[in-house]
Amino acid sequence: MKQSKLFIPTLRDVPAEAEVKSHQLLLRAGYIRQIASGVYTYLPLAKKVLHKIEAIIREELEAIGSMELLMPSLQPAELWQESGRWYSYGPDLMRLKDRHERDFALGPTHEEVITSLIRNEVKSYKRLPLSLYQIQTKFRDEKRPRFGLLRGREFIMKDAYSFHANKESLDETYKDMYRAYTNIFSRCKLDFRAVLADSGAIGGKDTQEFMVLSEIGEDTIAYSDSSDYAANIEMAEVKTVYTKPDEAEKPLEKIPTPGQRTIAQIADFLKADPEKCLKTLVLKADDEYVIVLVRGDHDVNEVKVKHLLGSETIEMADPEAIKSIMGADPGSLGPVGAPEQIRILADHAVRYVVNGICGANENDFHYVNANPERDYRVDLYGDLRNIQEGDPSPDGKGTIRFARGIEVGHIFKLGTKYSEAMHAAFLDENGREQVMLMGCYGIGVSRTLTAVCEQHNDDKGLVWPVNLAPFDVHLVPVNMKDAQQSALAESLHAELEKQFTVLMDDRNERPGVKFADSDLIGLPVRVTVGKKAAEGIVEVKIRKTGEVLEVKKEDLAETISNILAQLAS
Question: 48 and 177 share a domain?
Answer without folding.
Answer: yes
